[in-house]
Amino acid sequence: MSKLSSDHPTTGTSPVTQTQEAAAHDIPSGDSLLQRGGGRLIFSAPSGSGKSTIVQWLMREHPELRLAFSISCTTRAPRGTEQNGVEYIFLSPEAFKKKIKNGEFLEYEEVYENRFYGTLKSQVESQTAAGQNVVFDVDVKGGCNIKKFYGDRALSIFIQPPSIEELRRRLVGRQTDSAEAIENRLAKASYELTFADKFDRIIVNDNLEKAEQEAYEIVKEFIER
Fold it and tell me: Which of the residue ranges 2-11, 118-127, 203-212 would you say has the lowest mean pLDDT?
């Protein structure tokens, strides 16, 4: 936390000046504002737009932002060294469905029969109470639903590719998908792009370093408000 200092002696300082100086000491510095945490940041984008790269850069290069992914629930079994409450909160399908019935989820999805993923409202509140600025890395529908729930308490950011053709080039360059899978991703991306204007901010990722810096400035401004 930064501290204010003065080269002038206090002897003979007027009461008004002393009051002003005392008040100045009560003004939170930028660092202390960042340390408060409690923000909610939604990132959505079509596959291949660079969203995950940008979010990971923010977390790695700017720890002062106190960013942390929301810890989701899932009904799948833990893998490897995964721990309950760390990577995921692991629930049985029955327990997950009960929480759905009770309205405990911000958003959830059944990816196939009895394989659920979702975000608990209580988990987000627990993380924000601990001083974290919680990051939601979700699809566009999930992002819109979370934003609708939190309103001005959340900032929604859409990472947009410069064009569908550039997105095609990136997906082909990954060399991880078949031609058919790429066409399916592009069709989905075209649909997802129609949601862009529902987000608070849009970052066009035509230059990664520029997009990363823009994301940093947007997130920092929101956290410090």
Answer: 2-11
Which residues fall in the annotated binding site for ATP? 45-52
Q: Which amino acid is at 76?
A: R
CATH number of 71-130: 3.30.63.10
Q: Which residues are annotated as part of the binding site?
A: 45-52
- Topology adopted by domain 37-66+133-225: Rossmann fold (3.40.50)
pLDDT in tens, 127-168: 999 999 999 998 899 899 999 999 999 999 999 999 999 999
In contact, 42 and 107? CB cutoff 8 Å:
no
Q: Tell me the pTM.
A: 0.78
Render the burial of 157-181: b for 16+ CB within 10 Å, e for the rest: bbbbbeeeeebbebbeeeeeeeeee
Among 25-34, 111-120, 140-149, 209-218, name the one with the lowest average pLDDT. 25-34
Q: Is 45 helix (H, G, I), strand (E, B) or coil?
A: coil
Domain boundaries, the chain: 37-66+133-225, 71-130
Which residues touch 44 (CB under 8 Å, ≥6 apart)? 51, 138, 139, 140, 142, 143, 156, 157, 158, 159, 192, 195, 199
160 φ, ψ to 5°?
A: -115, 135
Look at residue 224 and give its three-state secondary structure. Answer: helix
- What lies within 8 Å, CB to CB, of 34 at 6+ separation is 64, 65, 66, 220, 223, 224
